[in-house]
TrEMBL record:
One of its GO terms (cellular component) is plasma membrane. It is found in: Membrane. The chain crosses the membrane at residues 20-41, 170-193. It holds the Pfam family HisKA. It comes from freshwater metagenome. The keyword Transmembrane applies. GO terms for molecular function: phosphorelay sensor kinase activity. Its EC number is 2.7.13.3. This is histidine kinase. The lineage of its organism: unclassified sequences, metagenomes, ecological metagenomes.
Length: 486
């Protein structure tokens, strides 16, 4: 098959192809059945005609044997032709002299007994005188009783014109019904194909809408046990996954853009300070040694803050990669006591206590399967926030406990608390309640984001609630490995 023909076939719609194939099959089927019927019907009719010719010959022979003249008996068919010959072959009588040439069999005017004997009673075919039709004939020996038992020959013939007319009529009727069946079949097939393929049109329109960027489109429901229904269900599942994937991608892209923008802002601020002090020094605007020392001190602090910010960014990037953590047994009791000691060292005038909220002794180990450094970073960040955002000398508590298969560690402060409307935002990257981005209290905005990422990497949860009497309580829940003493 040439490429051009293949291209033309590919350009034809599926409905047209199915309709054309159905019409072709109907046509071929009708042609085969018609040809087969004609092939079987004609021999059957010929056989019937031959039997009738033989029967008429027998009847005429009986009439001659009874001394009756052929044709005088009303039982003799009028559309059969006969000729009577003497034993020497002389024609005695025939009944087609007054017929037209098309109805006169071309039988010889002489017919001997030897001719009859050679045929042996077999049917033979002769044409009409004008050769426009044929006759089936039979020759038989007869005895003339009125001629004292003289013998002769009787030839009986019947035209096949009536048989041909019957076959022509049958063929006309068959062709008429066949054409009607093909037309009705084509229309019915077109209707059924159009109805059946209607859901595919919906698939096409939905696909076009999706191609334009509308990933919320879904295919309408169809009968689930049909091919189209199963296709719709599979496509809807695929579209749902694609929609979620694109939504997740857009969300991640939006977060990344915001993250990059905030990171650029956070890094630009200390760089501007460092550059400003460097330019002042280069321009000679810091003549005094004390001014130079103050400038160097500010440059060092900004560099330290910028380094801490970069470390936080790297920590978040590593957590985002979802690499498996190196885990081991971590005793939360020991971690809590260490965090309390660090807080007291940072702010000696503040009361920091460790309590058990599950009734177990304070010295009882509480072991979980986790990464020790990451868990300590979580508590350190939470304690750092509490120390930064609560009034001086405001007490802090670290509460640990176990509930079924989970261990909890809470950092409780008694400061101003966190308004309910922003509690879902505080774990976002670079989000700070201090809109002025005050460096003294605002931090980098990454501490709680790092906490949330670490907890999530441990398959844990973190939430914040209001402390009774005022303040905020951050509660981290992590899976427990085992709890000795419980």
């Amino acid at each position: 098959m040439s490429l051009a023909l293949q291209d033309r076939l590919d350009a034809i719609s599926l409905r047209t192809k199915v309709t054309a194939v159905t019409v072709l099959l109907l046509t071929v089927g009708l042609l085969v059945s018609g040809i087969g019927t004609m092939a079987m019907l004609r021999p059957a009719l010929i056989g019937q005609l031959d039997s009738q010719v033989n029967a008429v010959a027998v009847e005429l022979s009986r009439m001659l044997d009874d001394s009756s003249e052929p044709g005088t008996n009303s039982s003799t068919p009028s559309d059969y032709f006969y000729a009577l010959y003497a034993d020497d072959g002389t024609l005695l009588v025939r009944n087609w002299a007054d017929k037209g040439l098309g109805l006169q069999p071309a039988i010889a005017s002489t017919w001997s007994a030897d001719d009859t004997q050679q045929l042996g009673g077999r049917i033979f075919v002769v044409d009409s005188i004008d050769t426009r039709t044929t006759f089936h004939a039979v020759a038989t020996a007869v005895v003339f009783q009125d001629l004292s038992g003289e013998r002769g020959s009787l030839v009986v013939a019947a035209p096949t014109s009536s048989l041909d007319r019957l076959l022509t009529t049958y063929l006309s009727i068959f062709l008429g019904f066949g054409i009607g069946v093909v037309i009705v079949g084509a229309l019915l097939t077109r209707f059924l194909v159009t109805t059946t393929f209607a859901p595919l049109r919906e698939v096409e329109l939905t696909a076009a809408a999706i191609a334009d960027g509308d990933f919320s489109q879904r295919l309408p429901g169809a009968t689930p046990n049909t091919e189209v229904g199963r296709l719709n269900r599979a496509l809807n599942i695929m579209l749902g996954r694609i929609d979620r994937a694109f939504a997740e991608r857009n969300r991640a892209l939006s977060q990344m853009q915001r993250f990059v923008g905030d990171a650029s802002h956070e890094l630009r601020t200390p760089l501007v300070s460092v550059r400003g002090y460097a330019e002042l020094y280069r321009m000679g605007a810091l003549p005094k040694k004390r001014d130079i020392e103050q400038a160097m001190d500010r440059i060092e602090k900004e560099a330290i803050r910028m380094g801490a910010l970069v470390e936080d960014l790297l920590a978040l990037a590593r957590l985002d990669e979802s690499r498996p953590l190196e885990v081991g047994e971590v005793d939360l009791t020991l971690v809590a006591h260490d965090a309390a000691m660090d807080a007291r060292a940072f702010d000696p005038e503040r009361t920091v206590s460790v309590v058990r909220n599950d009734g177990a002794p304070l010295s009882s180990p509480l072991v979980i399967q986790a990464n020790d450094d990451k868990v300590r970073q979580v508590i350190t960040n939470l304690m750092g926030n509490a120390l930064r955002f609560t009034p001086e000398k405001s007490p802090l508590e670290i509460a640990i406990g176990v509930d079924k298969d989970s261990a909890t560690i809470s950092v409780v402060d008694h400061g101003e608390g966190i308004p309910a409307q922003i509690r879902d935002k505080i774990f976002e990257r670079f989000w700070r309640a201090d809109s002025s981005r005050t460096r003294e209290t605002g931090g980098s905005g990454l501490g709680l984001a790092i906490v949330a990422s670490i907890v999530n990497a441990h398959n844990g949860t973190i939430n914040v609630t209001q402390t009774p009497g005022g303040g905020a309580t951050f509660t981290v829940t992590l899976p427990v490995l085992h709890t000795p003493g419980n």
